[in-house]
């Protein structure tokens, strides 16, 4: 969803090729030649083959910088700030958010029991990250500054899941984080991709 939303933000045409994860299609050739870890997504752009969603979105944002929404900052100092917050998302936020998404969203859908001790541990870790976000967003509309960038964009998939769980209270209780969430989740590109997911 992260990659599809990026393509939509950049107003780029693409061909979406579904991979049947239930039958293990991603764990055998020819898919393994695209991603040796056997995971989606994969992007093919001419002779370039990429995997890992954040790497793909960075490639799209740089290569097609003049198309659609400018997701990267051109000014070196602004770019540095964007890089800082992309790292925060990947190294601090995602660690807790992905664990909570697994426990509260994915496991129940697979008929597995949620581990309440893990939820409690990672809820506390996420709260610490969101406290930092609250301070940051009190002084700027978006994480990297006044413009929506990949630093914000990369949060969308887990945000979407977590706001449908009891963890929503962590976001709602922080006024600036709550406003930021509402803003980025309302983006037309994200809404379009989310609707595509529901129609599959």
UniProtKB/TrEMBL annotation:
EC number from the UniProt entry: 2.5.1.18
Segments forming domain GST C-terminal:
75-200
Q: Matching Gene3D superfamilies, A to Z?
A: 1.20.1050.10, Glutaredoxin
Question: Boundaries of each GST N-terminal domain copy?
Answer: 1-68
Q: Which keywords describe this protein according to UniProt? A: Transferase
Any one Gene Ontology BP term: toxin catabolic process
Among PANTHER family, the record links this protein to: GLUTATHIONE S-TRANSFERASE F6-RELATED, GLUTATHIONE S-TRANSFERASE RHO
| Protein family | Belongs to the GST superfamily. Phi family.
Which protein, by its recorded name, is this?
A: glutathione transferase
Organism, by scientific name, is Abeliophyllum distichum
């Amino acid at each position: 969803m992260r990659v599809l939303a990026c393509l939509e933000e950049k107003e780029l045409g693409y061909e979406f090729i579904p991979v049947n994860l239930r039958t293990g299609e991603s764990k055998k050739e020819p898919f393994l030649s695209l991603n040796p870890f056997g995971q989606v997504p994969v992007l093919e752009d001419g002779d370039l083959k990429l995997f890992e969603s954040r790497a793909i979105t960075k490639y799209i944002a740089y290569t097609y910088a003049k198309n659609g929404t400018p997701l990267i900052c051109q000014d070196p100092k602004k770019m540095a700030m964007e890089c800082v917050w992309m790292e925060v998302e990947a190294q601090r936020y995602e660690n807790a958010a992905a664990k909570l998404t697994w426990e509260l969203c994915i496991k129940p859908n697979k008929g597995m029991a949620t581990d309440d001790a893990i939820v409690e541990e990672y809820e506390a870790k996420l709260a610490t990250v969101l406290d930092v976000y609250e301070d940051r967003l009190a002084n700027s509309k978006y994480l990297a500054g006044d413009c929506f960038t990949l630093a914000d964009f990369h949060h969308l998939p887990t945000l979407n899941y977590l706001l449908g769980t009891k963890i929503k209270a962590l976001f709602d209780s922080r006024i600036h984080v709550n406003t930021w969430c509402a803003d980025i989740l309302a983006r037309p590109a994200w809404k379009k991709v989310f609707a595509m997911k529901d129609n599959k």
